[in-house]
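Hi R.,

Here are the chain sequences for the assembly we discussed:
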Amino acid sequence: MTSGTDDGTLAVNNLNPELNAPPGGFDLVKVVREYETPLLRYVARLIGSRYDEARDVVQDVFLKLHKHMTTPGQADIGNMRGWLYRVAHNLAMDYGRGRKRRQTLENTALSDPSVLEKTRGGKLDDARDIEKKEAAQVALRAVDRLPEEQKNVVLLKIIQGFTLKEISGMTGLKIGTVNYRLTQGLRTLAAQLQDRGDQ
Amino acid sequence: MKDTPEKKQLTCAAIENLLGAYVFADLSAADSARVENHLEVCAACRAEVAAMRQVVQALKDELAAEDAPVLSGEFHQRLAALPAAPPARKSILGLPASRVILQVAATFVGLAALWMFIIPGLFTAERHYSKTRLDKCARMNDDDIPLEYNAYPAGTFDTKELDPEAREELTLPAVAPPPLTMPAPPAAPAPESALDFDGDDTMETRRGARPATEHDIILPGLSASRLAKSGSGGVGKDKSAVDFSDEVFDQRTDGANTVTRFEKTKKETSFTVLTDGTDVNGKKNKPAGSYPYGGKVSASASERGVGGALPAPRKSQSEEAESFKWRDAEAASKALRDEGDRRKGDIAAGPEPKPADAAPFSVAAATAEPSPDVAGVGRFRIESEAKTRGAGVEKTLSLTTPLPKTRQQEAVAAKDSEREYDDGEVFLREAGSKTGTVASGEDLAGNNGRLLKQAIDEPERAKQPSNLPPSEKEEAQRLPLDGLATRVTELPAAHLEAVQEAWFKPLPVNPFQLTAQDNQSTFALDTDTASYRIAQNYLRNNQLPPGGAIRMEEFVNAFDYNYPRGDQVFTIHVEGAPSPFRKNLTLLKIGIQGKIIGREARKNGRFVFLIDTSGSMARHDRMPLVIHSIELLLNQLDERDTLSVITYGPEPALILDAASPREKQRILDTLKAIQCGGATNLYKGVLLAYETARRQFQAQAVNRIVLFSDGATNVGPTDAADLLSQVSANRRQGINFTSIGFGLGDYNDEILEALANKGDGNYLFVGTPEEARQALVENMGATAQHIAKDAKIQVEFNKDIVRRYRLIGYENRDIADKDFRNDSVDAGEVASGQSATALYEVELLERTDPEFNPDLGTVYVRYRDMETYRIEEISRRISPDAIQNLTVKKAPRFFLAAGAAEFAEQLRGSEHVQGSAVSDVRHLLEHVAVELPLDTGIQTLLNDVRQAEKLTGRSAP
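And here is the predicted structure of the full complex:
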């Protein structure tokens, strides 16, 4: 780019130094912007709730990150997104444990297509889109019903596109196990989608 | 056969846990190959993979469709405020402080009690220790607030530093106008259209205009169409805004092709794994514009005062574009003055020209200057000049009259004629003179400004984005030719309907595009040829096809250019030479060749079918199924193939020798007459089959023996070994062996499998008609299967070398430049072995420095591989060597493409071919036909051209 941009950057620093991350540090705002959406999706799917609850969890993730980064002596976060997802998973599990019964109820409510339609706010375009939409909704509902461990792997794959190796590193599972769970999860989802088609 | 299902089961079990990763293309090459091998033979697993892909796609679609969830604004503010808080002390005074203090106090009291009462002796000694512990406790209890933020010098923590590049990108959107990242604000278009009105089609106006363009276009008048000027080439080219919806995970260079693999991730989550291998936080290479919060980023950046940091360079760009224009205008006007004496007309005044008045100029302008440096072409051009000077003049004219313009344009033109005149002059000099197209020649020849304006308006209008369906009224007025229009109305009703349908979506021909304004050309691959077939039908009914039914690319793609095929899904071939029809222009031919999928390329087939006629084969699930299978296969074969049939009982018999699949009935009758019964001698049968196959052997063809048997063979071990060695030896010669088993098994099929293994062929089992179809039709590689979908091309021209370009055809396949890497955009599907060819007419800049010899540009092809379901992108540089002084002798197929395109453009009534006549095309193609005598397609085309020549002659006034 041109030097104009460099000047611009400098101008930012000069104008409002407090707004900027320390020179050697990381930009929390930037990280948040980058990951909030996928993390929200991930957590929301994981705890089978709508986004308002997921928001609490994801906020905690970022606060934890902030704390981690500002606390001396903490281990370096080598893999930012891996860290975020791992923490998000743990917090979501904690959160989920605390409200297991409520979750079940909500799950039931969520499986109701009318509720789902409202929460998604999807735009209906034409017949084919509706068809597609339906398939997607069925698939999403099926994801909600997946066993925890399969759901986690499937979500990590679909939402963030982690490789098996990354997932393995994050969850501490063997790659083979990750693969197995992914396959099982997809198989279940596919079967449920197929069932819908057959009906 | 008995154990085959079990074997299959075994393999299924072995790979079934890999399928999930396979769907995500996340397997090692070896595992991937294993899965693929299995999938090839296992329909159940194939179906499973397909279902998984479907579900993954559905989920991804759904995520893409929903509104991206975000955290609340308050939280963002809170986060933004976090680092700004001074360290420890002040934050304790904040809201959560009371809790913290309480906790700290409680801990303190607790610990103090502990130390004081339980281990009092250590109290003093432990003082220092306790203080540290307390600090630690305080931190541990503090969830929200950093105690000591900013208390550490930079670099204390090993976080990734934002490199300068990333910082630039962060600040970049500040200078981009809001429409890039936000819904178009209503105010945005106004100043830009004003800017554009000046013809100052600069970077920023195009960026800014993009969202507005779609709406503004429908307004009548020049300013609107000006706005849309760059539509055909795509408006924005701010690649950074779209580049990063993908995760690059593999890039390699293979010869001239650079292959980059992408795994699609969600657009909203675009991040990391960066092309240069750096890491982690997605800081580098991550343009703020593609954040879900891109708008915010840019907004906040401008709040910080970065906004407006960049206008200067943009300004200079626009100035450059302007001076560019004028420089050319100078040269052009000089050229025109030189020719002025030979021309009767005058730029400024003159009567409304009758077409005949203009004709001599159009011909002269186009043909007076042969290309002496290209021997073959030059000669041809001189000939064509002679012809067109004679009786052919009016024929030419009927195809080259400029398109009538719309009333709206006339109205606007009348209102603002002086201004447009100025504009127009620039444009004419710009577009017309250097090429010597007749658009300028005619207009300048003798007009009162009206035609002049047409020449302005037409190219301008042509620049409208193609996705905008023009009004019907406009359509009606856009008939390419006056004469044609009257002819068309005389057509019978059925034709008329077809014509109307065809006209429903005619789009303006792509205009020339200055690379200074937009150096990217993006469109979807198209392999259709229907337009050519339709045109042929018209011509054979002694009618010229309606211009709207002509799609140039489909004419070009109707012919085989014999591109070499590679192992990759696509290979890109670039070839260029001076245009045979227009001086100073270079024709660039870009061929995209799809690979052949299946076991081998669809080559000619030399099939020898070896059919078991043992008694057991008589059962209903055997011989009738064999015949059914062969019938299915026959439908997939054509005159390129031959078929021999050998039956083997106690003695083998050749009952069909090299029959053509065209003789389908005879073949089937012969097969149905086969009598089953008695013993069989596979050994002798195989020997005869090889003998037949060797006799009919054709190099470069598929030479294959297909054994149809229920496996009830009585081959001794010695014979078996001998058989297998036979098979091996012949495989090395290029004859392979496929076994197809029938009848659910009460027999041993080892020998069938061994034969296929050794023979480099398949071993398939057929139990039902459906399986027969799968085995023979799908696995024999005879059918067209899609190898790629949503295939797009983007050609990026080097502004230093290419002054302007024009894509011939593909008008209705236009894709916005910015959408090239948007994988949700629907683009072209390509089946196995298909190719697509795109022709560009480019004007190269004069090379001032002989040392300076860079590429002309780069061709990018992006597609979804149907095998891996992965997005891939390949690219190829257009090296300067690609442009040569080709001759028809050297590269007949290049000129075949040129001729086909030119012919289509003439039929279309494109303003770009007003200098050439149908006879020119005929001349060219006659030469091509001499070089390629075996290609009957060229003969057919030549006949069509002759017919068109006759028809245009008749229709000329």
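The radius of gyration of chain A is 20 Å. DSSP finds ten helices and no strands in chain A.

Let me know if anything looks off.

Best,
T.
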